[in-house]
Write a structure and sequence with these properties.
Length: 236
């Protein structure tokens, strides 16, 4: 397995660019370790190495992914997530604990948080709704990325019209927090839910607008008609 990790890292190094690294850093307020390259290049490297990796037992693939996460590099984590997405049919509810640990230990920026949670975690929750209880527990974490994960894990289900009562519950649990990354996360979740449940989300926002931070509110109503947006933004 070590030669696969070496190959991935060498591929990333050879395709890195100092210009892209400096440009990429501008998207983050926090410190982030980057090789520096476009997302399409990361996906290509992940796809090329997947040809061998997919022949390994799932436990070995998780071990390789763990080593990539451990490096702290954005691109290595992104390759690991690409492989997990490709393993979708093999992922079980028991694997949720692995994803949860990765979020707690390794996620340190919004991009990796969202990439991991939108599909691997979100897809698993759709298959196993009992995991919604774990997402609600995440809202109480002192870790900003775990809190954001509780919301952004429901972006895809929300667009499909699923789990609306749970979405509202998570939004309420996160509502009074001051962290803008968390506010944007649950605001995005509400915006996604509005694609299938516009009236319900509008009523939720209006009923909570006096305590909902403006950042979250603006995200939540972004796709609503102008008249609805004006009503939601108006203070009592």
């Amino acid at each position: 397995m070590n030669h696969v990790i070496y190959k991935v890292r060498e591929d990333l190094r050879l395709n890195s660019s100092e210009k892209a690294r400096i440009s990429g850093e501008r998207f983050f307020k926090e410190e982030v370790k980057l090789y520096g390259m476009k997302a399409s290049v990361i996906r290509a490297i992940a796809a090329e190495n997947w040809i061998e990796v997919k022949t390994y037992p799932k436990t070995d693939i998780f071990l390789i992914c763990e080593e990539l996460w451990r490096s702290g590099y954005f691109e290595e984590a992104a390759v690991a997530i690409e492989w997990i997405i490709r393993m979708e049919k093999k992922i079980t509810a028991e694997d949720f604990l692995i994803f949860e640990r990765w979020i707690h230990q390794y996620v340190s920026n919004w991009a990796i948080c969202d990439t991991l949670c939108n599909h691997p975690v979100g897809d698993l929750v759709m298959k196993h709704p009992e995991l919604l209880a774990d997402l609600k527990k995440w809202t109480q974490s002192p870790n900003r990325w775990v809190k954001r994960a509780s919301a952004v894990s429901l972006i895809v289900p929300a667009r499909k019209g699923l789990f609306l009562p749970h979405i509202f519950e998570i939004a309420e649990l996160l509502m009074t927090g001051r962290d803008d990354m968390v506010q944007k996360g649950y605001g995005w979740m509400l915006k996604a839910a509005s694609e299938a449940h516009r009236e319900e989300v509008f009523c939720f926002v209006v009923n909570h607008k006096e305590k909902m931070p403006r950042t979250a509110l603006r995200y939540a109503i972004e796709k609503m008609p102008e008249e609805m947006r004006r009503t939601a933004m108006a203070r009592g």
